[in-house]
Amino acid sequence: MADNYLENQYAQYAARKAAFEREKQLGKHRAKKTASSSVSTSKAHQSIKVPLNNFAFHNPVRLYFGEGEIAKINTLIPADAKVLLTYGGGSIKRNGIYDQVMAALSGFKIIEFGGIKANPDYNTLIQAVTICKQEEVDFILAVGGGSIIDGSKFIATAVMHDGDPWEIVTSGQSIRKALPIGTVLTLPATSSEMNERAVISRRAMKVKLAFYGPALFPQFSVLDPTAIYSLPKKQISNGLVDVFIHVAEQYMTTTEYMVTDRMAEGIIQTLVELAPCLMTNEQVDYNVAANYMLTATLGLNNWIAMGATQDWASHKIGHELTALTGLDHGETLAIIYPGTMDVMRREKQEKILQYGERIWGITSGDVDTRIDMAIAKTEAFFVQTGKKVRLADYGIGLDIIDEIVGRFEEKDMHLGEHGIVTPTHIRTILESRL
């Protein structure tokens, strides 16, 4: 079945590539404002080996990894702290994590705030901000996955923010002041437990935006692999895709770096090996769970980004798709990323070839054939995790594509490394995924 799928994908990519080449010759994919940076590729953007960029690295998060480590929470939070305990829909009360956390917090003043959903919504989080101010909360403990942690980062920031809280995500300013937070990770995916990033949604406005800053690093994070034993397969699938593309956004660029490339490839290879065990075994064993949890954390804790140029175009397109349709983040990425690889194949040619050889063992065929195979293998991996990979699979058509492209055109936003992904490319990427 997998072989037939790949054969079909090779044929489809070859056909689409030929069609795109014909259209490029006719100038159909050239935007008025971006004629000089159309789908055709300049030599300046060919993948090349370059020195690592200058960088300063700092990650202050203390990780406590392993079974039973939740019990240490009581030594990590100030004894006199009033703690806001944040979580999602209540799964932690069914799998025993909640009881472990509450036992560890015995003696602390605790205020609970549950009900934070995937793609945490601004209006829900503002309710928690009000509670924090009224109760004079001085520490937040987030128990959950990336959505819970990201939402808690927003709460922590908004409590300390003097103006309109929405400015936190619209101003683009680095977050320098926030309540201290700790995390207990239950869903590996986003690395929010060990980074200074967060993303929230405002459904009423149909937007999903990111914010960043050193104050968003958790003080500590507890990673107990047994927490994922009860996760639904869909959540594991979302996590696998999210981690894969977190790494790819930092790796699949127009440049090559020896050490960080190898680090990224190691993480991707580990995901490829772990995925069948995570998706097919009814009960995940501890070693698989532990390796997956650590792999997810390493995917976006800034280690593989040291000195490297990064992309993030697919994520930003995916955020718009989630905001407009409600698709899970992992679902949007599984659709978009193969299209990004395909449409930007010339700009990223050398890196895609490297990826194809080192991850999938693709060494034969001409350049375009090898790129087609690398893209098809990537898409097949997403399918293996249970993902649909076409917009039409979700009933999404040209109207949504027009809305997404319009949002980028309105701001004249260019994405990707060096701004090489124009609104015209974005349209082509999305149309190729219908």
Q: Could you explain the architecture of this structure?
A:
- The protein has 434 residues and is of the alpha/beta class.
- The protein has 15 helices and ten strands.
- It has a six-stranded parallel beta sheet with strand order 2-9-6-5-3-4, with helices on one face. Strands 1-10 form a two-stranded parallel ribbon. Strands 7-8 form a two-stranded antiparallel ribbon.
- β7 (197-202) and β8 (207-212) form a beta hairpin.
- α1 crosses α13, α11 (329-343) packs across α15 (423-431) and α14 (398-410) packs antiparallel against α15.
- The protein starts with a helix and ends with a helix.
- The model is unreliable at 1-6 and 19-46 (pLDDT under 50).
Keywords:
alpha/beta, six-stranded parallel sheet, two-stranded parallel sheet
Specify the biggest β-sheet.
6 strands, parallel
Strand tally is 10
Q: What distance separates the N and C termini? A: 22 Å
User: In what order do the strands lie side by side in the largest sheet?
Assistant: 2-9-6-5-3-4
- Strand fraction equals 5-15%
The Cα radius of gyration reads 22 Å
Helical stretch tally: 15
